[in-house]
Amino acid sequence: MISRDKHDRMANAIRFLSMDAVEQAKSGHPGLPMGAADIATVLYTRFMTHDPKKPDWADRDRFVLSAGHGSMLLYSLLYLLGYEDITIDEIKNFRQLGSRTAGHPEYGYAAGIETTTGPLGQGLANSVGMALAERLLNARYGDELVNHYTYVLAGDGCLMEGISQEAIALAGHLKLNKLIVMWDDNQISIDGPVSLSDSTDQCARFAASGWNTIRADGHDPEAIASAIEAARESDLPTLIAFRTTIGYGSPNKAGTNKVHGSPLGAEEIAAARKELGWDAEPFVVPSDILDDWRLAGLRSAKERKEWEKRLAAVSAEVRAEFERRMRGDLPESFATAIDDYKKKLAEENPKLATRAASENALEVINDALTETIGGSADLTGSNNTRTSQLGAVKPGEFSGRYIHYGIREHAMAAAMNGMALHGGVIPYGGTFLTFSDYARPAMRLASLMGIRSIFVMTHDSIGLGEDGPTHQPVEHLAALRAIPNHLVFRPADPVETAECWQVALETKDAPSTLALTRQKLEPVRNEYKADNLCARGAYELVAASDEAKVTIFASGSEVEIAVEARNQLESRGVPTRVVSVPCFELFEAQSDEYKDMLLGANTVRIAIEAGISMGWERFIGDDGVFIGMKGFGASAPAPELYKHFGITAEAAVQAAEGRLAKAG
Ligand SMILES: Cc1ncc(C[n+]2csc(CCOP(=O)(O)OP(=O)(O)O)c2C)c(N)n1
């Protein structure tokens, strides 16, 4: 049992490390770490099950600092608890180039950081995915192997963001009872008191979404502990509204927005030292306090060892599968399953929409990979994301593998990220491509973190037809391709769809988006090829009959148009090749030699895509021809729209002949 005095000094260690680091960096947010230090101290000294010496222990509790601006809270904790990645030098280097203690907690920079936070609300929604992954794995592996909590520290900002409602509604509905959100209810944000812009009764809102709610004093260690204990016993997810004072300990600035996001200043820090009775020099934690913290860091080592014993006691088969899934590796049988499927496709040559081709591919994938967790934001029948193996996940019942996310694209994407971060599952989820806008902040974070979330985005162009311009993406492919480390795939037929799925699944360090059609397409890959051609990002689909005079690049549904144009040009004696471009980013990763060979700079170059031209200059240069969209779409049957917007084989033939005539 930790005495009150000891508790206070341990919490003050967080406060002073945070004040000192922000002061030294001349930038950062001291208010939250100072205000939430008591909550964090109680959580980590009495409840958190984790092991700094084994930070990736699969059954550890997860802690998410959703209010990522308070990063010094997490960095202080990791240092104090004995996580090797965060040394005192890292704390001194807060926010400097190359330090692990970056501006906001960045996933991958240091062990103990479970997700990248900073865009408010994302961490909260990630945590829903983490808590969901925990329950899904628990349903498969039992309490023996998977049975842990997900704790979140969220601020007013996290709760004001729209994503919070999507996320808590999903968590409440599913009864994710091992999710505990601790709200730093300090009533202050940047502009001043929260009352300037909000009068929500947050407890009532959470209760209405199916949560257990508790209010407690966030500076009273016993009240904090009782609240967390009660939350752990709940059969619903719990919100604990911890009333705190932002910048607690700063005599002149506590309780105001002045302490939210700027250094306190030397004078005020000196006053805080007096107020809290802290004599240690900057960045020095008195050795008895550091010892206490390090002891707290050891509190679950025994539990970890017991867990390892339990893992060693299960059958070799179950253990191997569990460990493989947690590593994120695919079974060896996966590549064979895809290969067999490609052989079958080459025999059958089905004429399908790529969304339907994706469903067929998933039928194979979901058999081969028991770790996939599918879902859709209420467009299951349109996204073709559910296959025969996937039973629905229901409230409190997690044996299924399919999530009905509801009409909540943003929380879906963020929860998928949480699942990917948790490990042991591979999430994929669908909506219409145009609504990637509603999911984009989370999709961007998936890229930044380098995690395997797979977004299935159907209805990928004017080809969706009658739903009209609100639903027809035009700039979305370009917008998603602009995100670094994001594989945007636009397959042209069933074989390409299978290949793109294979690359997406085999890429552990980047998210993927599959852009898929609503409308049926002619198959363009009719011969079996063992190689995954899509893995090169772009490849020659059809060669010219002689030295090529024209190269036509296209992606997805426009590849069949490119092939038709090529055939017309060839019949008029113009040797023409077609390059299919399923993924810009993978093409960029090829050798210069390959890229030069493929680009065919000495030919007339044409690109066809039913979207805006941005990005295609890479393929067609300054003098190429782009056939696609210049503005928004329209409502009509798809074939009429293609004619109306001039995205046709005839247009490509005309353009090619025009250029060739000009060149003389
Ligand atoms: C999506 C998003 N919008 C805006 C910001 C900028 N921002 C950072 S902290 C903050 C205020 C947060 O207030 P609160 O959660 O109460 O934190 P506290 O003042 O208690 O530290 C804002 C607007 C952000 N990080 N993310």
Task: Describe the model.
It is a single chain. The protein has 664 residues and is of the alpha/beta class. Helix content is 44%, strand content 12%. It has 26 helices and 18 strands. The strands form four sheets. The protein has a six-stranded parallel sheet, sandwiched between helices. Strand 15, helix 21 and strand 16 (576-580) form a beta-alpha-beta unit. Helix 1 (4-25) packs across helix 3. The chain is elongated, with a radius of gyration of 28 Å. Bound molecules: thiamine diphosphate. Thiamine diphosphate is lined by residues 29, 31-32, 67, 69-70, 118-120, 155-157, 161, 184, 186, 188-190, 246, 260. The site of thiamine diphosphate (TPP) has 20 residues, from helix 2 and helix 6.
